[in-house]
Specification:
11 helices, 3-stranded antiparallel sheet, elongated
Length: 272
């Protein structure tokens, strides 16, 4: 493009590509330009008068089916037509994401090597009367405990995917807040339901799922969205846990982690 204009920035390249295809179907040349953390939508000049209005409409509802339909009509649905940054993996996973993953792995390996006392030190207190300033960390640290390779692998995969994106988009402190609140809510609910013998990051994972889910519904410009199929899968897995599928699942931790994550996403935090 010889003469161009930056229409705006958007955090999700796939959704932004749908808007670009939507413009292309109406005769407006546009493209995506990657930056360190998002993409810019660049349009050719002269731009029509309705373009700014169309951009604002997109920002208010980026998941609208009209944009996906435009990509299908262009014949390139599902393929991004810009050069992605080569450091994508490093950028997605920030220091808190990697740090918590490392802590979970180290704690799990310690149990395999016979250091079971660490699990005891990090588990939920046997009674709430035993909680003091010195051991209040135990209200949250059960999120570091895992009891099988499948257990830790499943949880860390989702933590890396959801926690990494949230940390990149909204910062390490924001991810820490969501982790502590959803971890505490899920742990407390599970303790009240079944006692102190539980552990795992899945309550936080469900909290992150709820945070993304509600953010996508209420604040789509955050770029924190989940495919409808994933929402159905996660909710179905939650229900199956309560119905009973023969696996030891911390159902209350899942449920109340989810509720806490949804509540946090609905709060009107100030953002850049």
């Amino acid at each position: 493009m010889s003469a161009t204009k930056i229409l705006g920035h958007f955090p999700d390249p796939r959704l932004a590509q749908g808007f670009v295809d939507y413009l292309g179907g109406r005769g407006v040349r546009a493209r995506l330009v990657p930056t360190d953390s998002d993409v810019m939508v660049e349009v050719a000049l002269p731009a029509p008068d309705w373009l700014e209005s169309a951009w604002q409409t997109f920002l208010s509802d980026p998941g609208n089916s009209r944009y996906q339909a435009a990509s299908w009509q262009s014949g390139d649905a599902g393929r991004l037509r810009y050069q992605a940054a080569p450091t994508r993996l490093r950028l997605v996973a920030g220091p808190l994401t990697w740090g918590l993953m490392g802590a979970c792995i180290l704690v799990y390996l310690s149990a395999l090597m016979g250091f079971g006392g660490l699990y005891q030190a990090l588990s939920f207190p046997p009674s709430l009367d035993m909680v003091s300033v010195g051991n209040a960390y135990r209200l949250v640290t059960p999120i570091l405990l895992h009891f099988s390779l499948l257990h830790i692998g499943f949880n860390l995969l989702w933590w890396w995917q959801l926690g990494g994106v949230l940390e990149k988009r909204e910062g390490s402190l924001h991810l820490l807040l969501v982790t502590l609140v959803t971890g505490f809510a899920g742990n407390l609910a599970q303790f009240l339901a079944s006692g102190p013998n539980f552990g795992g990051l899945s309550g936080v994972v469900y909290g992150l799922f709820g945070y993304f889910w509600i953010s996508g519904l209420l604040y789509p410009r955050r770029g924190l969205m989940l495919p409808g199929s994933l929402v159905i899968f996660m909710l179905a897995w939650l229900v199956m846990g309560f119905v009973g599928i023969g696996l030891p699942i911390a159902n209350q931790a899942h449920l109340w982690g989810l509720i806490a994550g949804c509540a946090l996403a609905a709060l009107p935090f100030r953002r850049q």
